[in-house]
Amino acid sequence: MMKKSDIYLNITSPENSLAGLMVEKVSLPGQGGRFTVLSGHAPIISSLVEGDVEYVVGGKPSSLHIRSGFVEVSDNTVSVCAEL
After folding, report:
1. pLDDT, tens digit, for every residue of 16-27?
2. Would residue 42 count as lying in a domain?
3. What does pTM read for this prediction?
């Protein structure tokens, strides 16, 4: 069940779709430093550097290591296109 505070996280690579799930928060390795996206975050587009995309689902943290990529945040949707 979707909560008002949930964020839709979509992670794709040039090869395939890796994740499409509802999360509580997402932390990303941005070009200017790590940043966290919570529900209601302002729209943003950022390049990503090598590091971990960390996210929380049902109170449990998970992560995915990326080499580079881009992220777009808009309307409680985080769309990541990354090279693994």
Report:
1. 888 899 999 999
2. yes
3. 0.91
